[in-house]
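Why does residue order matter? Because the sequence determines the fold. Keep that principle in mind as you read this record.
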Amino acid sequence: MKIKIINRSHHSLPEYETGSSAGMDLRARLENPVSLGPLERKVINTGLFLELPVGYEAQIRPRSGLAAKRGITVLNTPGTIDADYRGEIGVILVNLSHEAFVIEDGERIAQMVISSHERATWVEVQELSETSRGQGGFGSTGTR
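Structure:
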């Protein structure tokens, strides 16, 4: 699939790191380093603008290493970039650690997955089909 992209950063375009990677790393586009204090959140721009085909979205997800090692994650995971959005991709980062974290220009801050999606049409009914789970909610299927 070919996707139109504008890159207003001085970093290379996002790319898949391996042949089986689902996501591409996004890099921070910063004039100056940004400090993210404990429990603080900020939008970090990437300098990237996309034109996705209708029926597709770009999902913005945390980088597992950054989350596990530093406590830095994407706040609205996954963030969604819709096909009709033409603004700059910004990533809402939050620091869940007890230490400040400094984000440098070019740092890999999140990953982006391109995914297809369906549009739903609601069919209003009076009852739903029965299942073995029924109305069991959080944790109702056990721990195995």
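The chain is about 5% helix and 35% strand.
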